[in-house]
């Protein structure tokens, strides 16, 4: 099928010339048919009343056309307008015999006598005056009828343009199913206006073809035609060999060879098709007598040939059946072989029916012919896409049944496969239920989006592989850059990562612009509805009043923007910043700030893409101001505080802080609140405004050192110098205590309880103070016991209550006994 693509362009032109040569010529009515015979008898009609009636009908139709929104209304108005034009022509034709009779009577009377000649009788003069007045009236009526006919024809052409524009923009327009007889009517009964216009166009093309083979032009035309055919037949094959040799022998080993060869294969196909089309273009338009219409059509065909060549070239680059081991995407060989004929077939369909659509647009054919061409193109493209999905699934199932293992399909590949299948089914359903415009829109979107993403895939691989190869320390170019600029391997890796990220970002932005514009060229059939419809209307789906292109562009931009932002954030956090000398907290703050600003910009640009003007958001701002005054002030205060924290950075991720009696490490600074992790691994969420309005202790700000201070109380009878030396020796022997500033012992207090000594030492970080103090206490107690030095015990005064002595026992009275 690829050979078909390379020969289809001139073949279609030759078929067009053949059709122009064999097209039947409508016999013209001889102008002097009535002049040779007797003049016909005048038809007695009330011309004045008929003209008033026709003029009222014309005015009413103009009003109806300006208010019509339904396609069936415009269709009926078009038929009524054509009937009105025919009635006006019939009235003008009916008045011509009367006009001829008056002229004959005036000829019999002859011209009025000249000055000085014998005067004519009063009866003759009166009759001539009456005939001249009648002739003036009839002439005015004929001119009026012709003017009404011309206005009606112009109105009919305007209605056709309105319907054609509606067909191109209003996707909810129901124009009839492809199964209806009306859809296939242009094949069996061609309207006289279409036939006449096509005959005139084919005659211009035939004249241009014949002019190209006139003596003096014949040799150049033959050379152009022969070169074009040779380039189409062998151009891409001849370029494949030197490109393969260049990839193997010149480019360094690595992925760059595959990505370069894939891009070069696509470019070679476009180049061969484009050069051949340019030669055919020169063959036609180099003659000075070629009509402007043929020149414009040749321009359109040249651009369309480039577009079709790009589709075929992308297919060859992705499938790479000539060099399967060099295939860039992971596609199994049986799958690639099964899909070999599909890209050229799709390119051929786009070329043929795109040329037909451009011809219909330039010639101005009827709407039925335009609908027929759009429907057939949508049907063929949908069947081709569905066939690709079916073939892929069938080959994969066959491979699995035979015990083989198909290629591992990624999630993105699965989504592409599913999306293509769903869109193909949607196109077929739209054609079946009669929404030809929707099917055409989906068809061109499928082709355009697929081509954009294919080009983006190839170019991203090429840019990344090129940057990695240029700045690799293992390649010649990388070694030269390294030695000439005095860089090390780390700097080369940073440069490769940064340049590849910039390249990918630029390519993604260009792809987004191409998707949003949806056009390959302003005059090609790949315009893909770049001028969106302002309002939809009609029955069924036509009752929806929406602006589809704005919504679609906004969704596309939002999805691409979020993907680009997340990819850039991931690249910044994982690839680029770790290769710098920034601390962890600084890197985290930069990533969070970058994300917040990116989301704000994406939101604003998405609203702009939807067509929302900023001056229209005044009522939203007013409503938000009232809400902020009542219930959103805390949220806004925390949001502004979060931005201040990210910009001024009094605290950052990883700092050890103390706020409101809470001490812990900052894990994350969000837009509204900050997460603080405590020592037990629990998390406290603190509003950002507290960091601005309260006192915050940042123990790690400015590379702060930790202080390990221990207070000890000794008895009054100790030797202070001995204890001081023992404490200093213990601190100096600990590996975590810094030598500068040196440890010190301070005589803190002298009281009745004993001597209080304070020993202080510095460590690298406040985070290790607790562990260092614990180790020091263990060591100090051990050394004090070895030296026989005891810590002071606080004196206690103990009060004990003695028991009361028992009362004396009196002796019994002996006398009483």
UniProtKB/TrEMBL annotation:
Domain of life of the source: Bacteria
Residue ranges of domain Mechanosensitive ion channel MscS C-terminal in the record: 714-790
Domain DUF3772 stretches: 144-204
The Mechanosensitive ion channel MscS domain, residue ranges: 635-700
Residue ranges annotated for the Mechanosensitive ion channel transmembrane helices 2/3 domain, each copy included: 594-633
Membrane topology: Multi-pass membrane protein
GO MF term set: mechanosensitive monoatomic ion channel activity
Subcellular location: Cell membrane
Stretches of the chain forming a coiled coil according to its record: 44-71
Transmembrane segments: 219-239, 260-281, 301-319, 331-355, 367-390, 411-436, 448-471, 546-565, 586-605
UniProt entry keywords in alphabetical sequence: Cell membrane, Coiled coil, Membrane, Signal, Transmembrane, Transmembrane helix
Pfam families listed in its UniProt record: DUF3772 (PF12607), MS_channel_1st (PF21088), MS_channel_2nd (PF00924), MS_channel_3rd (PF21082)
Signal peptide region: 1-30
GO annotation, cellular component aspect: plasma membrane
Family statement drawn from the similarity comment of this UniProt entry: Belongs to the MscS (TC 1.A.23) family.
Protein name as catalogued: Small-conductance mechanosensitive channel
Taxonomic source organism: Sodalis ligni
């Amino acid at each position: 099928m690829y050979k078909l693509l390379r020969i289809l362009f001139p073949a279609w032109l030759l078929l067009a010339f053949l059709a122009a040569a064999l097209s039947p010529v409508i016999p013209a009515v001889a102008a002097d048919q009535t002049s040779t015979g007797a003049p016909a008898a005048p038809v007695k009609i009330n011309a004045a009343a008929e003209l008033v009636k026709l003029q009222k009908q014309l005015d009413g139709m103009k009003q109806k056309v300006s208010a019509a929104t339904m396609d069936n209304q415009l269709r009926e108005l078009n038929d009524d307008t054509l009937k009105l034009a025919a009635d006006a022509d019939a009235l003008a034709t009916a008045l011509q015999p009367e006009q001829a009779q008056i002229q004959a009577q005036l000829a019999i009377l002859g011209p009025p006598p000249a000055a000085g000649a014998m005067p004519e009788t009063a009866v003759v003069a009166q009759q001539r005056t009456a005939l001249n007045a009648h002739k003036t009236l009839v002439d005015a009526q004929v001119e009026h009828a012709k003017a009404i006919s011309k206005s009606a024809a112009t109105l009919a052409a305007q209605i056709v343009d309105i319907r054609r524009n509606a067909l191109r923009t209003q996707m909810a327009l129901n124009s009839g199913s492809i199964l209806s007889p009306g859809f296939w009517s242009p094949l069996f009964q061609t309207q006289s206006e279409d036939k006449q216009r096509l005959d005139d166009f084919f005659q211009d093309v035939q004249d241009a073809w014949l002019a190209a083979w006139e003596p003096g032009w014949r040799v150049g035309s033959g050379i152009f035609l022969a070169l074009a055919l040779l380039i189409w037949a062998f151009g891409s094959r001849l370029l494949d060999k030197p490109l393969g040799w260049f990839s193997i022998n010149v480019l360094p080993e690595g992925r760059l060879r595959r990505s370069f060869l894939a891009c070069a294969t696509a470019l070679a196909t476009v180049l061969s098709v484009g050069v051949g089309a340019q030669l055919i273009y020169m063959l036609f338009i180099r003659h000075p007598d070629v009509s402007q219409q043929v020149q414009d059509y040749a321009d359109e065909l040249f651009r369309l040939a480039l577009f079709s060549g790009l589709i075929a070239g992308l297919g060859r680059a992705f499938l790479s059946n000539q060099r399967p081991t060099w295939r860039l995407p992971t596609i199994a060989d049986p799958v690639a072989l099964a899909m070999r004929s599909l890209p050229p077939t799709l390119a051929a369909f786009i070329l043929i029916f795109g040329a037909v659509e451009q011809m219909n647009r330039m010639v101005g054919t009827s709407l039925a012919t335009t609908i027929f061409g759009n429907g057939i193109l949508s049907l063929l493209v949908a069947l081709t896409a569905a066939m690709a999905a079916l073939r892929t699934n069938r080959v994969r199932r066959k491979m699995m049944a035979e015990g083989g293992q198909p290629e591992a399909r990624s999630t993105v590949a699965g989504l592409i496969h599913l999306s293509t299948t769903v869109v193909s089914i949607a196109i077929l359903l739209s054609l079946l239920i009669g929404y030809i415009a929707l099917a055409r829109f989906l068809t061109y979107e499928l082709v355009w989006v697929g081509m954009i993403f294919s080009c983006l895939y190839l170019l991203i691989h090429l840019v990344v592989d090129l940057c990695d190869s240029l700045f690799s320390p293992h390649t010649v170019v990388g070694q030269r850059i390294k030695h000439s600029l005095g860089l090390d391997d780390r700097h080369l890796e940073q440069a490769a990562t940064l340049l590849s990220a910039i390249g990918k970002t630029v390519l993604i932005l260009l792809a987004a612009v191409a998707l949003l514009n949806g056009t390959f060229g302003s005059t090609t059939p790949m315009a893909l509805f770049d001028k969106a419809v302002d309002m939809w209307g009609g029955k069924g789906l036509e009752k929806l009043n929406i602006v589809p292109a704005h919504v679609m562009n906004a969704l596309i931009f939002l999805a691409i923007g979020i993907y680009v932002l997340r990819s850039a954030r991931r690249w910044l956090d994982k690839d680029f910043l770790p290769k710098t000398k920034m601390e962890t907290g600084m890197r985290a703050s930069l990533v969070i700030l970058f994300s917040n600003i990116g989301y704000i910009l994406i939101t604003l640009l998405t609203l702009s893409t939807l067509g929302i003007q900023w001056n229209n958001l005044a009522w939203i701002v007013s409503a938000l101001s009232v809400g902020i005054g009542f219930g959103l002030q805390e949220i806004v205060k925390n949001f502004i505080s979060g931005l201040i924290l990210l910009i001024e950075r009094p605290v950052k991720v990883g700092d050890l802080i103390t706020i409101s009696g809470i001490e812990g490490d900052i894990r994350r600074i969000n837009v509204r609140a900050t997460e603080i992790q405590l020592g037990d691994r629990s998390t406290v969420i603190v509003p950002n405004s507290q960091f601005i309005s309260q006192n915050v202790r940042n123990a790690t700000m400015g590379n702060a050192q930790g202080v390990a201070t221990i207070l000890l109380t000794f008895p009054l009878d100790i030797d202070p110098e001995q204890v001081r030396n023992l404490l200093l020796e213990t601190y100096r022997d600990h590996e975590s205590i810094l030598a500068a500033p040196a440890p010190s012992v301070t005589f803190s207090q002298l009281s009745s309880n004993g001597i209080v000594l304070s020993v202080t030492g510095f460590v690298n970080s406040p985070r290790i103070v607790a562990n260092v103090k614990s180790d020091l206490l263990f060591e100090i107690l051990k050394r004090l016991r070895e030296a026989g030095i005891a810590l002071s015990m606080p004196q206690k005064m103990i009060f004990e209550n003695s028991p009361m002595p028992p009362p004396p026992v009196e002796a019994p009275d002996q006398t009483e006994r």
